[in-house]
Amino acid sequence: MSTETATAKPKAWGGFGTTMREYGIMAALVLIVILFQVLTGGRLLQPNNVTSLVQQNAYVLILAVGMLMVIVAGHIDLSVGSVVAAVGGVIGVLMADYHVNPWVAVAIALVVGAVIGAWQGFWVAFVGVPAFIVTLGGMLIFRGVAQVLVGRTRAGFEDSFVSISNGGVAGWVGFMGDLDAFTVIVGIVGIVGLIFSTLRRRMVARSRRLEVEPMGLMLVKLIGLSVLIALATYWVASSNLGLPYVLVIVGLVILLYSWLMGNTVFGRHVYAIGGNLAAAKLSGINTRKVNFWLFVNMGVLCGLAAVVVTSRAGAAVAAAGQNYELDAIAACFIGGAAVSGGIGRVSGAIIGALIMGVLNMGLSIMSVDPSWQFVVKGLVLIVAVAFDMINKGRSAKA
């Protein structure tokens, strides 16, 4: 009797995969949260700290999505921190010196980010210079540009711009006791959407006679994720801001790119290029075009991250973006992306970014010296990649 060995590719809008690797990453996140909740005497999960966690790490979540796509294709981008600083400098000059409308400045920031991405994509895709070299040069070039643009700090932005990263929806449709009603509604919609998309994906897979996860495992996953969403909704709805605007932005980015990587030809081409470049070329994939647009996309996300970071600080400074590339790369590898390319999910990168964010906030609450924070994050990154390599070695032997 023959058995079907193909596996259905997860296509849920939430992007949460069904591999045991991702279950392990989610379990690690939960354990780290519980650990710091205990070590901080319950302060980590105070409602205002939960919203601060999102606000402070929104840039990592955004950059990690773009970096994941670059890494899956077998490249790396070392310039994202400098690009964020340079685009932030453009935003500061436009609004502080020329009094440009904040929303026009945001649009210009995204365009500038795209142009920078196109510049780097040209060298990688059409000239053939390795991405490591191109983006290493970009890291130096755009850090210099940032220092030229904002030799002095630019501040005094309009409240509408500052509220992008510092405001929230609290009170939009009233309150349910101490909880913001709009945030509660969003949480309920999220849980219903998760259940519906998971069941629909399972039905589609079965109709195509593809392998599906056991029903018991699916129910455990659904219950666990629903509880996590419910808890997060409660904490956020209890905060002073309710649902932060920046969380809405991050959520839309996650939904869009989860769909892009799981449901489009472009997403499949990215995986194919990272998995086997020679085979991708033989199959007719325009690898130059895909690589070019990968870096354009990374530039756009850098522009968005620059908007978020500049809004959060309320000022544009040349030193912005320091080590952002390391945070984004670490989030991807902790989230299960393969060093060699071809493997990785948006959901994994997001979980990795949250792990980095929880480590940052937990260690800060505990007043751990910043130097030791770097040590801890470095060790976590090495252990995560080593764990992945060991698992691959065992699979190869099997």
TrEMBL record:
One Gene Ontology cellular component: plasma membrane
Transmembrane segments annotated in the record for this chain: 23-45, 57-74, 103-119, 125-145, 181-199, 219-237, 243-260, 290-309, 315-339, 346-366, 372-390
One Pfam family per UniProt: BPD_transp_2
Keywords from the named record: Cell inner membrane, Cell membrane, Membrane, Sugar transport, Transmembrane, Transmembrane helix, Transport
Membrane-related topology note: Multi-pass membrane protein
GO molecular function, one term: transmembrane transporter activity
Taxonomic source organism: Tessaracoccus aquimaris
Record InterPro entries: ABC_transp_permease
Localization (cell): Cell membrane
Functional description taken from the UniProt entry: Part of the binding-protein-dependent transport system for D-xylose. Probably responsible for the translocation of the substrate across the membrane.
Descriptive protein name: Xylose transport system permease protein XylH
Protein's UniProt keywords contain Transmembrane helix: yes
Keyword Protein biosynthesis among record annotations: no
